Amino acid sequence: MTSTAAQATATPGTTAKTTTTTTKSTTTRTRTRTSAAASMTRKNNALPKARTLIEALPWLTRHHGKTIVVKFGGNAMVNEELKAAFAQDIVFLHHAGLRPVVVHGGGPQISAELDRYGLVSEFKAGLRVTTDEAMDVVRMVLAGQVQRELVGLLNLHGPLAVGITGEDAHTISATRHRPLIDGEPVDIGRVGEVTRIDTGAVLALLEDGRIPVVSSIARAEDDGHVYNVNADTAAAALAAALGAETLMVLTDVEGLYEDWPNSDEVISRLTASELETLLPDLSSGMVPKMEGCLHAVRNGVRTARVIDGRVPHSILLEIFTDDGVGTMVVPDEPSVSEGTS
Q1: 163 labelled as ligand-binding?
Q2: 44 annotated to bind ligand
Q3: CA-atom Rg of the chain in angstroms
Q4: What global pTM score does this model have?
Q5: What is the pLDDT of residues 33-62, one digit of tens each?
Q6: CATH of 66-328, one of 3.40.1160.10, 3.40.309.10, 2.40.50.140, 3.20.20.80
Q7: In whole angstroms, what separates CA 83 from the centre of its chain?
């Protein structure tokens, strides 16, 4: 009787243990199947990233150790997201083994500050007319505001960036620039034309593993006057003096248009001679940029690129992808006679 009761009592317990074991087994199998599915999803999500990295490999190899001069300007200077993306791009170039040099203007910030002081912003031949009073504002904004902020953004990623102006160590020397309008020279004030580049300070920073950030202010060699130099022009002159691999100019357009405003088709690649024929028909704002590109490729820079600074990470897309995102200017191919002489 006792034995039978004990057996009867044991039966429910055995059933409970069996049920618990079965439930655990089912849960384990379900978890295993779920983990396998999640793993496959992660792999599928990761594959495109791997393909992007592999696509960048030949470009990383080609540009490793090369100097890249980047002109920072346009809309990217006033949009917080674009400024942060620009800083990330430059730091990425640095850690990828390139030697980036940043040259910046400050058009939007200068205009805003001139308005605050009640000074008129006027442009002729695509260049800002710079009076003595305006020059004080330009100097303050470029060196004290724009450069400080940009250096700070870059240094969020480590102690990398160092700011200098073209005045420092006579990095950029200039004389008064008088552009031609309708064939006549016009005085536009304290606007400088670059006469000489001293690369010593910039090279020293590069050799020390730093990212130079250069404000486009220059000093005259003769009378010590300070000049406002167009940042596109300054970047091109510095790129040529450094023997840079590439000059990159950020703009507020997609690139150089084939037939603006009749067409929004962007020219992806053209030679120096092809660009030269287009210069007379370009809008005034594009002239300094494209003249800078032309100067660069005719003075030893391998490529000059105009890219849309409104696109986040456009620098990386242009350098490290097969398609690129802007307009690339290249030197003219040597003629047969030049190649065999």
Answers
A1: no
A2: no
A3: 30
A4: 0.81
A5: 557 667 667 766 777 777 767 777 777 778
A6: 3.40.1160.10
A7: 10
